[in-house]
Each structure stands twice: as C-alpha cells, then as structure tokens.
Amino acid sequence: MYPKIALIGRPNVGKSTLFNRLIRSNRAITHDRPGVTRDRMEGTVKRDGRTWTVIDTGGIHLDESYKAAEGPSELRGFESEILRQTQEAMAECVALCLVVDGRDGLLPFDRRLAEYVRRSGLPVLLAVNKVDGGELEDQLTPEFHELGLPMLALSGEHGYNMRAFEEELRDLLPPEDQWQQLEQEAGLKLAMLGRPNAGKSSLVNAITGMNRMIVSDMAGTTRDSVDVTYVLDDKRYTFVDTAGVRRRAKITDTVERYSVNSSIKSSTKAHVTILVLDGQEGLTQQDKRLIDLLDERKTPFMVLVNKTDLVKPNELAAVKKVYKEALSYCAHVPILYVSAHTRANLKRIIPLAEQIWSECHVRVPTGQLNRVLEAIVTKQQPPVVNRVRPKFFYMTQAETNPPTFVFFVNDADRMKDAYIRYMERSLRKTFKIEHAPVRVRFRSSHTKRAKK
Fold first, then answer.
1. Is 262 annotated as ligand-binding?
2. Which residues bind GTP 2 (predicted)?
3. Model's pTM, two decimal places?
C-alpha cells in the first residue's frame, strides 16, 4: 500500500483534470458540469523515487447551516453521499489538497472547506486551479492567501505549474523511513459490467463489506469506473465498478457516452469480466448484445444474475432456463444466480474468477497436442466436403489468454462449423478448460510441417 493524498473541493473546480494529469491518464470523467465525478477514484503517482496514491473525490457542497464548530451538516441525496465518501477518503490519507477555482475567486464554500480540512490535522496544500500564470496569476490569487494555507497557482487543463504541483504533493508525504510498507501486487482485477441499475455497485459493496460505492434506485449512479481493493485469504482483488451500459440509441447525455466507452474499455483491461444482469427485469436485448460483445472478443467472463431474491420461487426454474438457452452458444460461460441483498452465492464469485483466470493460462507442449489431435480425429473424422475429406497435419498452441490452438490442414475452407465446435469441446475436456474462452484457428498447408 502507498501513502494517499486526496483532492477535495467544490464541484467543477477541476479536481478530475488534475487527477488525470497526475496519473497520466483519462480515467476520471471531466466535463463542464458540476458533480460529474460522483464516486471517488484512485490512481498511482510515481515521481522522483517516491510513490503515492492520489484520490479524486466527489465535489463537496456544504449548506448555509454549516458551522465550523459542528462540522458538516447532514445533507440529502448525492451531496451527502459524496461528502461521506470524501470523509472516508480523508480518514485514509496522509495529506490533503484543497482545490479551488481561481477564476471564481474565494467563495464562502471555499472558506468553509478550508476550515474543514484544517481541522483534520493533516498537511494541506491549497491548489488554485484554472490559472495560467503571468498577470492573470497576480490578479486571481492574492485573496486566497487569507486562508493561511500553503498555496500554488496552476492550470490542470493547460499544464501550467504541474511539475511544481507534483513536487509540492511529494513534499507532503511522510519521510520514506517512516513509510515502510512494500509495494504489493495488484492481484486479480475484476470488471463489473452491465446495464444501469443491475446492481453492480450493490454487489461490490456486499462482496467486499465496504460501503464504498454510491448505491441508489436511480439508474446510472456510477459514472466513472471505480477501483475497489479487497483482500481475501491474503490475496488482493480489485473490483472495477463501471458505469451502466445502455443501448446506444438511449445514450443522449454526453457524460454518459463517455462513461459507457470507459466501461467497455475497463472490461478489456480487467483479468476477468463479471457481467451483471437484472434477474427481476429479465434478459433484454442489451444484455444479449453485451454477451455477444464479450464472446466475440474472447473475453474471460462470468454472468451474475442478480436480484434473484425478488424472483418468485416457483418462477426461478423458468428464469434459469431462459438464461441457459440464451448462453447456449457460449456454454463455457458460468452463470451464478445471486443476490446482493441476501448475499446468496456471493462466496462463489472470487473462486470462480480465480479458476477462469488460471484456465486462461493453460499451456500444452506441442508433443502432447499432436497426440491429442490424433485421438480426436480418430474418434470422429471431419465430414467430407465436395468429395474431399479435410486432412490434419499437426497443431500448435499459438498463445495463452485465451488459449489459442492452430490446426494445420490441407484446406481450411472445408472445415465445417459443427466440426470446429467438436474440436473445441474435445480440447476443453482434455485440457480441463471449463470456463475460460478458447480460440481455435485453421490454416491451409500442403506440407506436413508448413511454416506457421
């Protein structure tokens, strides 16, 4: 684990832009609308021999009844949720960075936030954002000095003073000899994918036991892809809770379009994708599209049918039949019927993900492959096509993740889909690849040992 520094501040002051600059990425959604970052995000920063974690929190709103002696008042809706998550982030941090908007000037909210972070007892840096230096800096920054915090003017959008910003944050860290925790492996990364309000965040909270994700009955409450680290039996797991994926025609909001793209991208970077479906609502066309997409890309994934506690017991068998038939063309994909509310079957998720990932790395020696090939073909010959029966010369394993097997034959165009499926089933059974994707390819060759 690394020491953590949180970026906090009002909505739309540019925290996410600074976060993206620091981690050299575009993980946080940036948009000219207050409150676009709802969940907190974490990223790793490495500078000048030091490594730390930066946290991008949701924007804080404090109402007019706020008093420094009493702390933040109870708020409703998203603002109270964002404030709660910011408080949790602060509890984990060794330092704080209060971000303000230099163009807006010093607002009452900024004064209250300054008092709020000062009471934390942590080192604090005041980052006056959206300032590009020169006369503009001289005009915009003087009033912020009255907050009595170490201050730096900068621009996340244009990169002004970013190097100095990194150095200032680094200097907030405790000395290296006081921070002796070694860098740990990230562990298995699991992407939670699915339509809005399928229960992805509720499942992450239920599995990890952390009330980390914003959970609401409103569809689309998770907009960013958010990493949640969980330790089980001394092993680290990272759940990436992505924004819900709607049917493209319904994506009219610009921010939501960014979120959907980020969700799909996050699933490709994860080790295993967990597709969450709404068991109460039933299988939709969008669910089928997501299954098709993951299968076509040979993505290692499992399906969680959530909210099964809301399905009538006498209807559950029929529901299971629908999902089994819908996934018949990718029968290797495991289906778990779960409930975030009752925690049914949640303990099976991580072991299943471990199994899938392990199977993705099956490697078979070439000698064994060709003995297996002979046995498979002997058991069932390929069908004759245009009076010619396809002839197998040999096979190799081209790669892992997914296991990819290449068959060299006299005419690849003569291979029928049914026989290709037979070959895949045989390979799965022989090499014990139950749930990982498998890629089977055929190449035409006129010699027994053709070049690959």
1. no
2. 194-201, 241-245, 306-309
3. 0.57
